[in-house]
Write a sequence for this structure.
């Protein structure tokens, strides 16, 4: 294995674990904060609690699939997996922004820094691993 390939593999592994960390964080938020705080809140109507509970389980499942994609096909360098993780980042992570704007409320203030760091880590992982998503365009630039 060439030195360049070893570096690429190391970068992909680091980026994969960043995505796994983000997915685990989002899943934990759904299970540890979303369900107990909102899904069991008796002041909410039953149907609203149903939606929160359903959303939490969807979030956990979505995160489990994301971690699986990051650890298996992404580390192999399969192009579609980069795009799947891009989708996870945009629709899973960045969806906080329009949700907060539409509702006029967002995550509690003490979550702002961890959320910002998590989003910055996800963006960094996408940029560092862009060779997976765009293998030909980057190869042509180096010539």
């Amino acid at each position: 294995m060439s030195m360049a390939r070893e570096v690429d593999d190391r970068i992909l592994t680091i980026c994969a674990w960043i995505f796994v960390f983000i997915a685990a964080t989002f899943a934990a938020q759904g299970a540890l904060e979303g369900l107990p705080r909102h899904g069991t809140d008796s002041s909410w109507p039953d149907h609203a609690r149903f939606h929160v509970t359903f959303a939490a389980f969807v979030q956990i499942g979505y995160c489990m699939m994301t971690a699986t994609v990051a650890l298996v096909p992404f580390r192999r360098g399969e192009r579609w997996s980069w795009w799947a993780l891009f989708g996870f980042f945009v629709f899973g992570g960045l969806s906080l922004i329009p949700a907060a704007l539409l509702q006029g409320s967002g995550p509690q203030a003490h979550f702002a820094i961890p959320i910002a760091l998590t989003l910055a880590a996800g963006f960094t992982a996408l940029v560092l691993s862009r060779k997976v998503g765009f293998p030909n365009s980057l190869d042509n630039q180096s010539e």
